[in-house]
């Protein structure tokens, strides 16, 4: 009699085989404990990316050797950050992953973004600019499509809302200045920061980016709403319109 397994390789042993199974534990059982111990002692800094990914997969794949899957993820996407940021349908293409394991990976990404968002919400963003940039990079830096988001600020420059307004294609996102200003008025926002990403990885603003920003600034100024900046997020860097003299 053999163990039965489900789609993601979770084995269910008949009751009569439990003792026998326990007598010959798979080799990865001790490996898992060693990884957990190393994480407890040294944190994530003591582990390479693939081992950290193994830890993420442990709960979803309790009876599988997760090392080959973790290494396949990094080979496919390039890094831990890019893997957890990947779209679910792309993660599902990696052999050995199913819905449960993909959910675990995306949960890590969502938790990280929520933590970073908590560090900038309801706080003066101009005094914590580097934290804000870290948050924008984490939320948009690896996206495969352009996303246009707006950070809405109150009169004390505290972040009161963070919203993705549009999602476009790999190189274009339609933006409507009237809708941007309308939403700022709805939130009683007195200042905004525009943010969008370039999936190509190069954050250099295009002429279309520059023209669109000028239209939004003109519409905002007429209603006494300040546009503090427009940030273009690339894969490893970003460009500030204000720092570049474009605003």
Describe the SSE topology.
Layout lengths: L3 E2 L5 E2 L5 H6 L4 H15 L6 H10 L8 H11 L2 H6 L2 H4 L7 H20 L10 H12 L6 E7 L5 E9 L9 H10 L4 E7 L9 H15 L4 E8 L4 E3 L7
Parallel strand pairs: 5-6
Antiparallel strand pairs: 1-2, 3-4, 3-5, 6-7
Describe this structure in words.
The chain has 247 residues and is α+β, with helices and mostly antiparallel strands. The protein has two domains: 25-114; 124-240, Cytidine Deaminase, domain 2 (3-Layer(aba) Sandwich), CATH 3.40.140.10. It contains ten helices and seven strands. The chain has helices at 18-23, 28-42, 49-58, 67-77, 80-85, 88-91, 99-118, 129-140, 177-186, 207-221, and strands at residues 4-5, 11-12, 147-153, 159-167, 191-197, 226-233, 238-240. The strands form two sheets. It has a five-stranded mixed beta sheet, sandwiched between helices. It has a two-stranded antiparallel sheet with strand order 1-2. Helix 2 crosses helix 3 (49-58), helix 3 crosses helix 4 (67-77) and helix 9 (177-186) packs across helix 10 (207-221). The radius of gyration is 23 Å and the shape is elongated. Residues 1-5 and 13-22 have low confidence and may be disordered.
Which structural class fits the helix and strand makeup? alpha+beta
As laid out across the biggest beta sheet, the strand order is 4-3-5-6-7
Q: Looking at CATH, which topology of the largest domain would you report?
A: Cytidine Deaminase, domain 2
Radius of gyration from the alpha-carbon trace, in angstroms: 23 Å
Q: What is the overall shape?
A: elongated
| Tally of separate helices | 10
Query: Can you give the helix content as a percent range?
Result: 40-55%
Assign the CATH class of the largest domain: Alpha Beta
Total strands:
7
- Give the low-pLDDT segments: 1-5, 13-22
User: Do you know the CATH architecture of the largest domain?
Assistant: 3-Layer(aba) Sandwich
Q: What's the mean pLDDT score? A: 86
Please, how many domains?
A: 2
What is the beta-strand fraction? 15-25%
Superfamily at the CATH H level of the largest domain? Cytidine Deaminase, domain 2
Major sheet characteristics: 5 strands, mixed
Along the chain, the helix and strand elements come as EEHHHHHHHHEEHEHEE
Termini gap: 72 Å
